């Protein structure tokens, strides 16, 4: 892997546009459309602005839509689809009986694609501010679930050919902060093992990306609360991880027995210790903004030994990633995306395929902060997003990894 220092914003041509938006557009579009539909001749519910200069698969000829009786048909390939971008939810496809009868062999997401209109347009349609068309899926809120999402190692073998994974040298905590910037300090996976003299660099925002406890016992959570309140950072952003059992309210009723809790503690009371801590903003499929910089936090990760906030790979994970707004600058999740900080000691990749595709195809954050895989600690960049695995503990649960620091220009 190439090695370089982290820039302020490592924006280069998108990893799926190695020629900066040129190349064969079908090679970008087709892998993210249901292959069963691509081969069957069924019309894809995708509308592309002609000015985006992306060729359509030959099967796509037109899409019938109904929008307050203003539209009866949008022709593709011959007309510019002048869509009302402020009202995409008003557009609904009219499906033929053949389209509704997609075989059960087609996965659930492929079938759901037939029931929602994906509007993919050039940024020029938003007022001409951008001269380069984004990836055609950049404005899709609902992503296609790839069949290989259940097999991350196999998926990475396919994707890595066109993926950049550049090693990034972290910013020195002692480096001066530029004017009109916000300094973020990131830790994760501390597992109640932080020594009293653990050094946290100064900054404006302290991020903890989950697994602040070992199993979420009251003593562990209260110690974490005390740790947070003892930090001088004006803002502390926290998400939960798979070890923070009581924070997964829906599943704690079964989790507490399996992980040795003496009794079922009050989830809401334990969550409140962190949520109500001084200066703390707890995120769970929710966001915040600091100095105009938008953040989003999510605790979920693909199934991992049946701990908290575990979801089956594929569609269940994608439904959580669909909640992430496209305007996020700093994304915080507990689990890693596929290919970045996710390689386990046994050679298996624990990262989420759908999280990677959501980040690269739609959200495009400046930074993605996560933990979960202790041996994946470090920074990488795909040409646009800097991925930060800030796990504090190593594989043997020793807190040996230093916090990661980065600066983001203020937007206010």
TrEMBL record:
| Domain of life from the UniProt record | Eukaryota
Which InterPro entries does the record associate with it? Calcineurin-like_PHP (IPR004843), Metallo-depent_PP-like (IPR029052), UPF0046_metallophosphoest (IPR051693)
Transmembrane stretches, by residue range?
none
Region labeled Disordered — which residues?
A: 1-31
Pfam family membership, one: Metallophos
- What are the GO MF terms of this UniProt record? hydrolase activity
Provide the Calcineurin-like phosphoesterase domain boundaries. Answer: 183-375
- PANTHER family for the chain: CALCINEURIN-LIKE PHOSPHOESTERASE DOMAIN-CONTAINING PROTEIN, METALLOPHOSPHOESTERASE
Q: Which family does the record assign?
A: Belongs to the UPF0046 family.
Q: What is this protein called?
A: Metallophosphoesterase domain-containing protein 1
